Amino acid sequence: MDKLNINSTPSSVKNGRGERLLVINPGSTSTKIAVYENETPLLVRNIRHTVEELSAFPRVIDQFEFRKSLVLRELEVNDIPFRFDAVIGRGGLVKPIPGGVYEVNEAMKRDTLHAMRTHACNLGGLIADELAAALPGCRAFIADPGVVDELEEVARITGSPLMPRITIWHALNQKAIARRYAAERGTRYEDLDLIVCHLGGGISVAVHRHGRAVDANNALDGEGPFSPERAGTLPAGQLIDLCFSGKFTKDELKKRISGRAGLTAHLGTTDIPAIIQFIEAGDDHARLVLDAMIYNVAKSIGAASTVLCGKVDAILLTGGIAYSDYVISRLRERISFLAPVFVYPGEDEMEALALNALGALRGELPVQVYQ
Predict the structure, then answer these.
(1) Residue 299 CA from chain centroid, whole number
(2) C-alpha–C-alpha distance, residues 108 and 131, integer Å
(3) Do 107 and 371 meet the contact criterion of CB atoms below 8 Å apart?
(4) 62 and 197 assigned to the same domain
(5) Do 37 and 176 reside in the same domain of the chain?
């Protein structure tokens, strides 16, 4: 790393311009990085990984050095000095924790290395910690990981004490969008009652009451509406029969719930614009399946409104699918009677991570301790 021009003086002291941040967001087939000077992005890159590259690693955690070296190389080729006040990574699937900013510590690293669920996001905090450790005074953070759990106790109970509800959802983007909506209206996230729906490869619906997500579905492995690649809630009896049919291994069935489920199981693709082209060409089956997904999303949002006794300030729709007029227009038809609907297409997890790190450095957001 010597050739990256490591400087032992934090940039806020060195140049007097404010905080300098490195943001790292590992995904299944990419590693996104960004460099911020205060709120201004100086560099944003999406490093794509081929199937062949990743197949060299037996486990996701084995990709650590590979992805870290690509981050460092991207900084070098773009002449970005290796000099930061904080490095923040996308949080991993550790144990359930309240939302907020967490400094990476030994307990978090231990739990990440032994996480029960495998996902590339588990690498975010680990890479952030190692890079920050190379710089005196530099801090390593994560913020609002997918395991954020702020559920009310009544929301945890199911019909079987063997299976309490858990939540794995798009906490980072949902909370960032909720704060953005509040700021646009001159109020605070903590003063609003919102339903936020993230429409992506997985679909999460959460009830945000006064700054806490008091109910949210397990969008990763089996609850809520089906999505482009996830099955959502399934008939329990039929699922048990399938498990004992002898037709599938445990791993194969897991993929039938998350990965090879939802739209891709029905239609062979997760590409919403392509599916809409099929529909416009007269494919009635494609229309039925996509409309069924929209129908299920609307039902989940309607159910979420009961948590707030119908007193919903706004419904916020976000994620990549929110770019689709076909989906949004049909969803509006079913839910607009509940509350005003606002659409925030896409997701800006990089900005959300940067703003969380800035808030922590400036003392505007409390830094929580992972235990």
Answers:
(1) 22
(2) 16
(3) yes
(4) no
(5) no
Closest CA to 112 of 89, 135, 134: 89
Task: Determine the length of the chain.
Answer: 371
Helices H, strands E: what count in the chain? 13, 12
Whether 364 and 336 share a structural domain: no
Domain of residue 55, residue span: 20-152+350-369
4 inside domain: no
11-68 pLDDT tens trace: 443 444 589 999 999 988 889 999 999 999 999 999 999 888 998 999 999 999 999 9
Residues 6+ apart with CB under 8 A from 133: 140
Same domain? For 209 and 127 the reply is no
Alpha carbon distance, N-terminus to C-terminus of the chain:
32
Residue 142 and residue 126: Cα distance in Å, rounded?
10
b/e for 47-84, b at 16 or more Cβ within 10 A? Answer: eebeeeebeeeeebbebbeebbebbbebbeeeebebbb
What span, in angstroms and rounded, lies between the C-alpha atoms of 255 and 270? 15
What is the C-alpha separation between 157 and 351, in angstroms, rounded? 35
